[in-house]
Amino acid sequence: MAHTSAHEFLRIVLDKGSHISWDTPPEYGDISEDYAASLARARERSGVDEAVITGEGTIGGRPVAYVVSEFGFLGGSIGAATAKRIIAGIHRATERRLPLIISPSSGGTRMQEGTKAFTLMISITTAVYRHKDKKLPFLVYLRNPTTGGVMASWGSSGHITFAEPGALLGFLGPRVVELVTGAPLPEGVQTGENLARVGVIDGVVPVEQLNETVAQLIDILTPGAVPPAPREDPVIHDVAPLTPRDAWEAITTTRDPARPTVSDLLTTLPANTIMLSGSGDGRRSDAVKVALTQISGRPVMLIGQDRSVSEHLGTNALRMARRGIGLSKALNLPLVSIIDTDGAEMTREAEEKGMAGSIARTLGELVDADVPTVSVILGQGCGGGALAMLPSDRVLCAENAWLSPLPPEGASAILYRDTEHAAEMMEYHGVKATDLLAEGIIDGIIPERPDAKSEPADFLARVLAAIEATLQRLHTAPDRVGREQRFAHYEQLAANS
Questions:
Q1: The model scores a pTM over 0.85
Q2: 441 and 395 Cβ atoms separated by less than 8 Å
Q3: Separation of alpha carbons 40 and 37, rounded Å
Q4: CB proximity list for 113: less than 8 A, separation 6 or greater
Q5: Over pLDDT 70: what percentage of the chain?
Q6: CB of 106 closer than 8 Å to CB of 149
Q7: Is residue 351 within 8 Å of residue 384, measured between CB atoms?
Q8: Residue-wise DSSP of 358-392
Q9: Which of 154, 159, 156, 151 is nearest to 134 (CA)?
């Protein structure tokens, strides 16, 4: 596969005429004649003076900083001068509070400089995390090839990571793997397409489309002034005006396959919504959707359980949810959690992968998130799978939605050793929305007229309006936001029980 050069990358990705270089001549100190000759040949062949170039430009009119590798310069390898240039570029981007796009194409450490150059991957990563500490976007575009220490450090540290089609990507290159282990890796393992499929990176994007993709991301992450919620708040905070509903009727209503799901909700969001494809560490599930999007012009991270898929809510799904929670904290974005599940996966595999611990970690990270959070029980709220994504600054519930520690039939089986008492048990347990509001478990109810299935578009619009209004309320009352007030709320809930 051909290599996209650094200058070609910038020509395609940056807005025309916006390129400004930050580079100064590299300094190498006392090096061997052979190494000096190699550097001279690399400069002549590649058209650049080192294996990376740095600077700034615009994408979609938005200012960005960049660090871009040149594979034609000694295989994009990282020596001391290379590392110093990368670090200087990252620091300058941080100082100017610019989104940073890094595009490596490298075999890793420069062998002429040995172990010291290898350890400089830590120094580069330190600069990356100083940038991320400022809640500034750090985007990675992996080009062919990216392996070795670069892939194992700053090349895998992006908030969002895309790859060039067909790019060779891996911990070590295929030749090294075969020579060291005695066996080649299966064909296609070390490709961007495969890493996106298994949830290591977020997708494969042709370089010709990267300008548009990055522009979408930056538009989401750097909006203008946050507008007030434009629609009337539909949330009901008092049970009095609501028509009493039977618990079992509500449960059967939410089990209807035709009821709108989080996937349907996603179709109503802006076109620049970016769907993330996995956990970032090789785990993926269709049972949870993670989206970087905007609601009423406000950037948000949305995590949502999708009951429309056949896959159960397992450990991979919750790992994806935790990635969304982590990104909301890393980028200082409000977090919206959508709950709609018939319960967590109950299999040998789930037990051996630590289902209970995965629920606990997701629950803990959501409780601990120091950003505005809103949860919506869209339909079924069953068991630990629902609990994992429930705690928030404000919890809303669709009128027919419900919350139970067990599937209704499971609760009946425990007490009566049959499933015939499921409806009776659910009424007794107070699972329906009005019960949850009366107990202080939720903060408001989103009306259904009479149910979401019969008015899907209006219902989903109502859900978004409710989220908008709630986020606006949290925005104007920061004292009601974050871990400390969340801790106090749930401690008080226990005290009042």
A1: yes
A2: yes
A3: 5
A4: 79, 80
A5: 98
A6: no
A7: no
A8: HHHHHHHHHHH--S-EEEEEEEEEBHHHHHTT---
A9: 159
Q: What is the spatial order of strands in the sheet that 373-381 belongs to?
A: 274-276, 288-295, 298-305, 335-341, 373-381, 394-398, 444-446
Report d(CA 128, CA 130) in Å as an integer: 5
Nearest residue to 242 via CA among 119, 402, 400: 400
Cβ atoms of 272 and 221 within 8 Å: the answer is: no
Domain check: are 151 and 256 in the same one? no
Each residue's pLDDT tens digit, 82-111: 999 999 999 999 999 999 999 999 999 999
The enclosing domain of 281 has a CATH number of: 3.90.226.10
Q: What CA–CA distance (Å, rounded) separates 394 from 415?
A: 33
The tokens describing 450, both together, are 């009479």
Domain around 79? 6-221
Q: How far apart are alpha carbons 377 and 366 in whole angstroms?
A: 15
Q: Does residue 399 sit within a domain? A: yes
What's the CA gap between 1 and 13, in Å, rounded? Answer: 20
Over the stretch 434-490, which tens digit does the pLDDT of each residue have? 999 999 999 999 999 999 999 999 999 999 999 999 999 898 887 778 888 898 888
